[in-house]
Design a protein that fits this description.
The chain is mostly helical and 497 residues long. It has 21 helices and five strands. The longest helix is centred in the N-terminal third of the chain and has 33 residues.
Length: 497
């Protein structure tokens, strides 16, 4: 009895420890770190637009991603009464911060769920020790701070991991036909929703399909049942476009997404290495070890997805989010193999403890230094000033049709929370004009786009660098050498003709 109690206590400790660490890391300071990101503003805008219009398609002609990201966010917002439940005010910076705090807490909760799923997947497929090390790595390593941002990749991840989790429980020997049928459909539906969030994870069909197939004595019937929701759910996106006569727009949108000019695959890998060299090295070595051991579970997870990213060409660091769990699992397997290569067992046990402890201490220390910083204060100050400025000049700007040009994360609050008049455009918008009265929110992102040697950069430069543009506010500097300024551009009368 005592033995069972001790074993149960150890089991609980192994699973609770990474969950507590994950909760601390992802919920301690969600609005201070990481920095606000362009795409967060886009997805927040789409989610609130869906609440208001009940349509998942914001722009009738622009198709870049499927709809489940904004459907999921809008559903959570509707259930909680967000944003009105926060009683937003244009007179309080705390009010502006709370508007971002809620969705970031939501992403933190999803990261905790991810940690639990990493543990359960590793435990069932390998061992409890692999599960503990893998889930703890996933909880504390610096690169997983990407999960705090409101990004489709972070929304997608728990659905994909849950699909893997249920696929490992579809076993022809364990359940009656009805129960096995339900679990098969659940796994397929979850992967279908993950693909319906963002397309590149379709490569995981090979991994999860392999699990379903091999767990059911190579049954094509069970595999076929599983494939039904995997295929049908993502098909909602093109079918919807066809139903409203926008098939060509959909095709153009998909083509645009896969042929954009940005960072290459290897440039983003280099950024990954700089952001988290320890997990990059340990995880990559773990995948090499998996190839030697012919661990098809790890290889089918990593290789098809990496190949898809490579051939698409347009890769940003957060596109690697679906690979973070497998790098942690592969790294954990490799670390636990070290004692088997050492002849003396006492030395083997000590070496394992020292290496694992060293990696985890590095991860925890580095991540704590990051999450206790505040890199967003001037963003919120600027967002508050912008909102108040638009509120104070409501009548004048409405009459003169003001255009606000900025990073997307400044725009959704005045546009969709306070419903202030104006035409809201990001600095990537190709319809910007020198003939429009404009408010420019100039920060590092704005300057980066403006200094690009292309048509958009030249357009921004002709609006920004002119005697008709005057600075009305500035926020920053901080020890990260970041600041943002707000400019008012008033076109000459001759430019308006």
């Amino acid at each position: 009895m005592v033995f069972l109690k001790n074993r149960l206590s150890r089991s609980l400790l192994l699973i609770i420890t990474p969950l507590v660490l994950s909760a601390y890391i992802h919920l301690w300071n969600p609005i201070g770190f990481p920095s606000l990101y362009f795409d967060e503003g886009i997805y927040m805008r789409r989610a609130i637009n869906m609440l208001e219009t009940h349509s998942p398609q914001e722009d009738p002609y622009f198709y870049d991603h499927p709809y489940f990201g904004q459907i999921f966010l809008a559903g959570i917002f509707w259930m909680t009464g967000y944003p009105s439940s926060l009683h937003p005010s244009v007179n309080s910076i705390q009010s502006i911060e709370k508007l971002y705090l809620f969705p970031r807490i939501l992403m933190g909760v999803l990261a905790i769920i991810d940690t639990l799923l990493v543990y359960k997947i590793s435990e069932r497929r390998y061992s409890r020790n692999v599960a503990f090390i893998a889930s703890t790595l996933f909880a504390v390593m610096p690169i997983t701070s990407l999960l705090m941002r409101v990004l489709l990749d972070g929304i997608q991840l728990p659905f994909f991991l849950a699909s893997v989790f249920f696929a490992d429980r579809v076993n022809i020997n364990d359940f009656k036909n009805n129960r096995r049928f339900v679990i098969t459909l659940v796994s397929g539906a979850l992967l279908g929703l993950a693909i319906f969030t963002k397309i590149p994870v379709f490569t995981m069909v090979l991994l999860v399909g392999f699990q379903v197939f091999t767990n059911n004595k190579n049954s094509f019937k069970v595999l076929g049942i599983w494939l039904i929701p995997v295929i049908l759910i993502p098909m909602i996106w093109p079918v919807y476009a066809i139903s409203i006569g926008h098939l060509n727009d959909w095709l153009m949108g998909v083509y645009y997404q896969t042929h954009r000019e940005a960072q290459t695959f290897f440039a983003s890998l280099n950024l990954f290495f700089k952001a988290d060299p320890v997990l990059f090295i340990v995880g990559t070595a773990g995948l090499v070890f998996a190839a030697i051991r012919r661990d098809y579970f790890l290889l089918l997870w990593a290789i098809p997805f990496l190949m898809a990213l490579y051939f698409v060409g347009w890769v940003l660091i957060y596109h690697f989010i679906p690979l973070l769990p497998i790098l942690c699992i592969a790294g954990a397997r490799l670390l636990l193999e070290i004692p088997n290569r050492i002849r003396f067992k006492s030395i083997a046990r000590i070496s394992l403890s020292v290496i694992v402890a060293g990696i985890l201490i590095f991860g925890i220390t580095t991540t704590i230094l990051l999450i206790t910083s505040n890199v967003n204060s001037f963003y919120f100050e600027g967002a508050l000033f912008l909102t108040q400025y638009l509120e104070d000049n409501n009548v004048s700007f409405k009459k003169n049709n003001l255009t606000i040009i900025s990073d997307a994360f400044y725009l959704w609050i005045p546009q969709h929370v306070f419903h202030l008049p104006g035409t809201y455009k990001t600095f990537f918008d190709s319809t910007l004009s020198r003939t429009q009265l404009s408010l420019l929110i100039v920060d590092a992102g704005f300057m980066e786009v403006m200094h690009e040697h292309n048509k958009q950069g030249m357009l921004l430069h002709t609006i920004y660098d002119t005697n008709n543009t005057k600075k009305i506010a500035m926020f920053g500097e901080n020890h990260y050498n970041q600041n943002m300024s707000i400019y008012l551009y008033e076109p000459k009368a001759s430019n308006s003709h």
